[in-house]
Amino acid sequence: MPVTTQQLIQWKQQGRSIVALTAWDYTIAQILDAAGVDLILVGDSMAVMLGYKTTLPITLEEMLHHAKAVCRGVQRALVVVDLPFLTYQESIPQAINSAGRILKETGAQAVKLEGGYPAMVDTINRLVQAGIPVMGHVGLTPQSVHQLGLRQQGKTQETAQRILNEAIALEQAGVFSLVLEHIPADLAMQITQKVSIPTIGIGAGSHCDGQVLVTSDVLGLSEKQPPFAKVYTNLRETITKAVQDYAAEVRDRQFPE
């Protein structure tokens, strides 16, 4: 049976950990789904896969294009799509339109928005009222890279309290889950215990209700790994070797035989 947002909440109550990864095309999505991943995020981290330095340049049209491909490859997992920078911050109508397009045009079940400041809480509240499932995201928010950098957030008592308050406000606004990115493990544990919705950690320790990583990091495809990622295989090396072997056989006229 397909995973639902309500099922994720039930899993938190049952103590069942949630497995999440990112996908950017049909083939990767199909593999992740068949392998039993619970939640597939079409993240704006895909911008790096497209050659951008940050997540900021990726457009809604690019996200729609890739999310359609991902959804075609998924039968079971819940698919969540990031709203890219400046497609939801200008106004509530803009956010509703962008999120609505995601659900209408791709087949995804939910969207993810970054931030828990008051205006974003109001926006998410309206999205939820419109019937659009929303995943929240606090801590390190990559779309604020020029303001926050890529360093760990919530290290001081003041910033930790702010992130906790944001998490609580987002739950009250109706998000079905929260991404906690690159915050201290004790803060992530405090948030996870405080809210009734599942927390999905990325660089936030082991006390979250689930974990998400960028799939290219897991597979060893990325040029640079974030400090909190774990590489489970080195496909960059494997692919390089395969291409070199193919090239050598073509040049030596060994392929085709």
Commentary on this structure:
The protein is an alpha/beta fold. The protein is built from 11 helices and 8 strands. The chain has an 8-stranded parallel barrel with strand order 1-2-3-4-5-6-7-8, surrounded by 7 helices. α4 packs parallel to α5 and α8 (157-173) packs parallel to α9 (185-194).
How do the strands and helices of this protein lay out in sequence?
Elements: H1 5-14, E1 18-22, H2 26-34, E2 39-42, H3 46-49, H4 60-72, E3 78-82, H5 92-106, E4 110-112, H6 118-129, E5 134-139, H7 145-148, H8 157-173, E6 177-181, H9 185-194, E7 199-202, E8 210-213, H10 215-218, H11 235-251
Parallel strand pairs: 1-2, 1-8, 2-3, 3-4, 4-5, 5-6, 6-7, 7-8
Helix pairs in contact: 2-4, 4-5, 5-6, 6-8, 8-9
Provide a quick synopsis of the model.
The protein is an alpha/beta fold and 257 residues long.
What's the gyration radius in Å?
Answer: 19 Å
Number of helices: 11
Indicate the mean pLDDT: 97
Proportion of beta-strand residues = 5-15%
Oligomer: single chain
What is the spatial order of strands in the main beta sheet? 1-2-3-4-5-6-7-8
Keywords:
8 strands, 257 residues, alpha/beta
